[in-house]
Structures are given as C-alpha cells and as structure tokens.
Amino acid sequence: MGKGEMFVFMVFALLVGSLGGIHKGGEEEERDRIIALPGQPKVYFDQFSGYVTVNAVAGRALFYWLTESFHEPESKPLVIWLNGGPGCSSVAYGASEEIGPFRLNKTGSGLYINKYSWSLAANLLFLETPAGVGFSYTNTSSDLFDTGDRRTAGDSLEFLIRWLDRFPRYKNREIYVTGESYAGHYVPQLAREITSHNAVTKHPINLKGIMVGNAVTDYYYDNLGTVTYWWSHAMISDKTYKNLLRRCDFRQQKESGACMTTYTYAMDEEFGNIDQYNIYAPPCNNSDGATTTRRTLRSPLRPQNSIFRQKSGYDPCTEKYAEIYYNRADVQRALHANTTKIPYKWTACNEILNRNWNDTPASVLPIYRELIAAGLRIWVFSGDIDSVVPVTATRFSLAQLHLATKIPWYPWYVKKQVAGWTEVYEGLTFATVRGAGHEVPLVKPKAALQLFRSFLSGNPLPKS
Asked: Catalytic one among 89, 119, 382, 438?
C-alpha cells in the first residue's frame, strides 16, 4: 500500500467508520447486510453475507460473504475468490487470512484490518462451494458422498446468476474469478460454465479473466513436478526420488502399493517435521495434539499431515482461530449464517467431502485452451516454497500448452526488491512469488497485492 492510499484509508476509516453502509439496495440485498461483526473495528465499507439456493429440490444453498472495496466501490470490479481442498472454506482462508479486509486475532475474539487486503482494488465475493463446505449446506445427505467438479461448477454458476439478480448493480461490472490450490480446477471450470452460459443468454455475465495460485492443473505433470521439487530441495534422498519415478504412474488416481509405500516412506522418514505448505516455516505447535487437515486431491500424492501457517510476522496457527470465531453463535447471527442449524460444527475443511470426491478430470489444460481462445485474461502464480503444489509442478503443466513467449522471463519488483519472476505468453501470464508458500497473500501480502493490481490492469509486472 502506498502512502497516499494508506492516508486515504485511515482518513475514511476515521471520518465515516461509524456510519456503516452507504449504499441502499433492494429488499433481498438489505436482508443480507452485515451491520457489524463481533469484535470488528469500525469500517466504512459495506459488507453482505447470506445464502443463495442453487438447487431447491435437493435443498442445496451456498454461503457467500461480499466485502466491498475500501473506497469508490462503485468503480471497482467484482472479484470472486474460491479456496480448494476440495472441501475447504473461502471464509476460513481467503477471507480471514489472505486477501480479505480482516484478520483474526489470536483468541478468536475479534478482527483487525488487513492493510494489504485486495479490497483496496476490488469488491471481493468469497464463495463457499460446493454445498457442505463451511456454512454452505445441503438437505440431501448423499450430496456429501457423491459430489465433484461438475456439480461444483454447475452450482457455482447457478449461484452467480441468482446472486447477480439479488445485487443487480454488479450485473455490468467487470468480473474476475480467482482462487488457489484445488481451485485450479474450480476457477477455469466456472469460467467455462460462464462462457457457455453467455453463449445462450441475452444477459451475459461480464467475465474478463481468471487468476489462480499454486494451482492443481494436471495429474501427471503436477505429480512429476512435485517429486522433482522434493528432490531439488533436499527433502528426499536420491534413492527415494528414483524409486518414485520408477514405481509410480502419475497418471493414475489410484497408485500401486509399491508407489504408495515409497511415498509413505518419504513422508514419514525423510521429510521430517515440516510444514509442507511452506517448507521453511516453523509448524504450529498444537499443545492439545489436535490437527486440522487440508488435503489437496491429487493422485497419487495426497499430503496427510497437518496444514500449518507461516513465519515472518504471521501467526502459524491462524486456522485454529477461525474455527473458534466462526463457531460463535453471535458471529453466525451477524453473518446470517447457519440459519438452518447445520448438525455439525463449522470447520475450515470438510473431510467427508474431501475423501468422497468422485469427479476430478486428470487435466484442466484443455479448458485453458478454450479460455485462451475465448480471449480471457489468464494469470497463474506460484509461491516458490510450497511443496504441495510447487512451482515446478505448475511450470511442467503449463509447458504442455506450448504457448509462444511475448515477454521473456524476468525478475519483477516491489519496493526495489525482487518479488519473484515472470514470463508473459500469448494468452497467459505466469509469475512466481519469491519466498511465499501455498497461501501467497498470507506470507507475502505486499507482493500479492502488486500481483493482483497488475492482473486487474492487464499490465505486466513491474521490472523495477
């Protein structure tokens, strides 16, 4: 954030922080207005949350949280954020510890302002999808055991169509779909659903582009790139690396016993007690021995250890605080959440969904080709110290698109420091973020905000 923006932010917060929302919408929109969240600092931007029914017969409804831009929201685009898992909450991750306007305090008792929030540049719509994730629910219990990519994409499109009817002032806005991890499937799949919808409707959705980080993309090349990263970063031995390459057929969803034995050995005997999502960060020390898992549905290499948080001034136990805060009855009332009294606690990730995910294509690269042909702006970025969906995996996968280079590989900068490296291709921009793990905006918020601004403007990342 520049000095000028920080000044504007602070002045607006002081002058109109206690006034609440300034936009008066329709009846449905006003029912979703958040007056204030428990423990929230005074703010001047509008926020809304609630449910949109996407399948009345099955009783599926998706939960959203809209936080409008810190200033001049009427001139800013709408950016949809999706977290992956599959089965993980965009409220828990994207909204509460990455790009949202608030961060959680250590006791789960309140919130504080995220000064590098992407709310500086856009209106942010956090969607918990599919039904069963976070506060999103289904009245058909079998939905939790037979969901997958196709239903998620279809329900997410239905959500967006109905949500725009509830918030018609966004119908003509530029819309971008963003996310990370297994949202490497969700984001391009939703974009394809939108483009298909636009081809047959008189009221097209103004989709302009997509951006995904540390994105699950292609089984074979993702997994090949992952074990290569482990070896190149000294996480596994030469012997284990060679055994993985020899014993594993990375194209298969279910691997051989020999492959899984080698993988388990690497995890249990060679990795050590590290955070695989940020290999240079100390893990969160859970004194009660409890763990919260967030797994990435990829074959054959599903990380089984806990997901912990980052260093460099960031609390490594943030996920634990989310599960305290969002299970509070007063927080749920303020969010208009859990109105049907879901018979289970809110969790950052739904393990039932994750373990029973039954629809996942081996590659989304064909969808990338469709979206490039449709003229959408497409950016892919990677934190380079993530070992779960590492930078090598993404580079191996994107190379299969065989795109012509427009701007060759170069370092990009934030405050005169190298923030990462980037290359611009015909139809796609790829960027790394130096020193960032799986959740890039958590560890490198300033660099992530610059990345986001450049994406929205369509301009290459700064060379100096």
From this structure: 438
pLDDT at residue 248 above 80? yes
* Rounded-to-integer distance, Cα 454 and Cα 427, Å: 15
Q: Is 438 assigned a catalytic role? A: yes
Question: CA 227, CA 237: separation in Å to the nearest integer?
Answer: 11
- Selecting among 117, 119, 181, 299, the annotated active-site residue is 181
The CATH architecture one would assign to domain 219-318 is 3-Layer(aba) Sandwich (3.40)
pLDDT value at residue 314: 39
Catalytic residue among 69, 222, 386, 387: 386
Q: What percent of the chain has pLDDT over 90?
A: 80
Same fold, 3-213+361-457 and 219-318: yes
For 238, the enclosing helix (H) or strand (E) is helix 238-247
Q: Does 142 qualify as catalytic in the annotation?
A: no
CA 162 to the chain's CA centroid: 22
> Which tops the pLDDT comparison, 14 or 462?
462
pLDDT higher than 70, residue 83: yes
In tens, the pLDDT along 39-59 reads 999 999 999 999 999 999 999
Label the pairing between strands 102-104 and 111-113: antiparallel
- 255 vs 147 pLDDT, higher one: 147
Question: Which conformational region is residue 448 in: left (phi greater than 0), alpha (psi within -120 to 50 degrees), or beta?
Answer: alpha
Cα 1 from Cα 294, distance rounded (Å): 31
CATH 3.40.50.1820 is the classification of domain 3-213+361-457: yes
Say how far residue 169 (Cα) sits from the centre of its chain: 25
Determine if the pTM surpasses 0.85.
Answer: yes
Q: Determine the Cα–Cα distance for residues 58 and 141; give it in Å rounded to an integer.
A: 9
What the block records as the tokens of 4 is 């000028």
| Domain spans, the chain | 3-213+361-457, 219-318
Kindly tell me if the per-residue pLDDT of 320 is higher than 90: no
Angle (nearest 5°) at CA 462 between 458 and 464: 165
Q: Show Cβ contacts of residue 450 under 8 Å, excluding neighbours closer than 6 positions.
A: 414, 419, 461, 462
Own/partner contacts of 225-228, CB < 8 Å, gap of 24 or more, are 225/390, 225/392, 225/393, 225/394, 225/395, 225/396, 225/397, 226/301, 226/387, 226/388, 226/389, 226/390, 226/392, 226/393, 227/301, 228/392, 228/396
Question: Is 334 a residue whose pLDDT tops 70?
Answer: yes
Question: Does residue 181 have an active-site annotation?
Answer: yes
The per-residue pLDDT for range 120-137, each reduced to its tens digit, is 999 999 999 999 999 999
